[in-house]
Amino acid sequence: MTSLNVQAGAAKTDITPDVGCWLEGIPRAQPANAIHDSLHARALVVGYSDGAPGTVNRICLVTCDLIGLSAEFCWQVRERIAQSLETTPAQVVIACTHNHSGPATLGIFHDSERVDKQYLDLLSHRLVQVCQEAAGKAEPALVGVGRGQETTVSQYRRLLARDGRIVMNWEEFPQHEIIGPAEEGDPDLGVVKIVGSTGRTLAVVFNYACHPNSMPGDNFTISADFPGYAADLIEQELGGVALFTNGAQGSVDIEGFEGRDFQGVERRGEALGQAVLDTCRKIVVRPDPVIRSGRLVFLLPYRPIASEALAWARDVVSQAKGEVATLRDGISDEIKAANILQQAGLTQPGVDFEVVGIRLAESIFFAIPGELFTEIGRKIKTLAPSLQIYVIGLANGYHGYIPTAKASAEGGYATDVASGAYLAEQAEDLICENAHILLSRVSKGA
């Protein structure tokens, strides 16, 4: 078995921070005091020819067991990776798993002083290094694509109450007053398997929409949560490097407050890992797959703030004591108020929103810099029925939650500026329109 035009290599490196760092994803009043399991960055480099004699293009996918990374940080690292691999930053994607038991890398809750700049410097170095190592391992490769399902790990977390309110599945609310989920989740599992010419597994890329926050706010232990457990399981079984990419996960979560412990981490990791392995067994790898990438950048406006919300935020901040309390999940009114005031102080009309499309054989991945609601991800997946389309969330930056217009009208967590949805309500339509344009570029040669 040989592949004339495609070469691939993969590698991973340890990015575990020291005990004493602050964790991110849930408000906490004290720093990390232990390490349960290591955090990793994993890299896949795929080289291919576009037909021109002697030319090799390289696409690089990097995954990190982190909550997220800023667009500025990602771009700087992507430039360094691109220079070292003789490619372009547009062909490099840095994605985070959205791990809630990893170090503070964004300062989401207006606690930028908790972000360790020395750790980010070290992370930058290691990301470049692991990509170089992956490129150095490149060999002729075959690629196969498969689709499976996992129905036990991820649930739609916005619940419709009998009085018309939307409540989250982690909130304490009488169960007899809940009608059920307000929308559907997404159990879809996308898998790309890459093997060498001898049949040895080089890499597995798996995509699944989920919220890796197994441990509640009173956990101060570093962990890669269940995606890290699943990746380790796949690597032990198949060899190679297993790269988890999170999907459109802004409106899904684990099952409320059941199994919010390390036993729950293992149970979810086992379930997800076995679902990937089951899918891998059915994948047929083929030589000379279509490999292609593309990039679009467009202005995505900020969401306006109502005068009533601004007045409320000012009142809350004026009475705040400035103390950070540990929460089991969710955010406080003080954080919501700070979100509103920060948004109100912006002078730019919006953000330069980047979407990168990567085609690997019969699969296409759209890298999105934020927490896209699952409903939007499902819509994007229908753009080309002949191909397997997936969203990689938390990729190349972080611009908060991206809800649907319907969810914004219904209310609830993650649908307004107060709870981290900073982009205009037309974000859903603009992202889908640009994904469709990008699709036409990366799907040619189907």
Secondary-structure blueprint of this entry?
Blueprint: E1 6-14, E2 34-35, E3 40-48, E4 57-64, H1 71-85, E5 92-96, H2 117-136, E6 139-149, E7 155-156, E8 158-161, E9 166-168, E10 178-181, E11 188-196, E12 201-208, E13 221-222, H3 225-238, E14 241-246, E15 252-253, H4 262-282, E16 291-301, H5 307-319, H6 333-344, E17 350-360, E18 363-367, E19 371-372, H7 374-381, E20 388-392, E21 401-402, H8 405-410, H9 427-442
Parallel strand pairs: 2-13, 4-5, 12-14, 18-20, 19-21
Antiparallel strand pairs: 1-3, 1-6, 3-4, 6-11, 7-15, 8-9, 8-10, 11-12, 16-17, 17-18
Describe what you observe in this structure.
The protein has 446 residues and is α/β, with parallel strands linked by helices. It has one domain (6-288, 360-402). The chain is built from nine helices and 21 strands. The chain has helices at 71-85, 117-136, 225-238, 262-282, 307-319, 333-344, 374-381, 405-410, 427-442, and strands at residues 6-14, 34-35, 40-48, 57-64, 92-96, 139-149, 155-156, 158-161, 166-168, 178-181, 188-196, 201-208, 221-222, 241-246, 252-253, 291-301, 350-360, 363-367, 371-372, 388-392, 401-402. Strands 5-4-3-1-6-11-12-14 form an eight-stranded mixed beta sheet, with helices on both faces. A four-stranded mixed beta sheet has the order 16-17-18-20, covered by helices on one side. Strands 9-8-10 form a three-stranded antiparallel beta sheet, with no helix packed on it. Helix 3 packs across helix 4 and helix 5 crosses helix 6 (333-344). The longest helix is centred in the middle third of the chain and has 21 residues, at 262-282. The radius of gyration is 21 Å and the shape is globular. The mean pLDDT is 93.
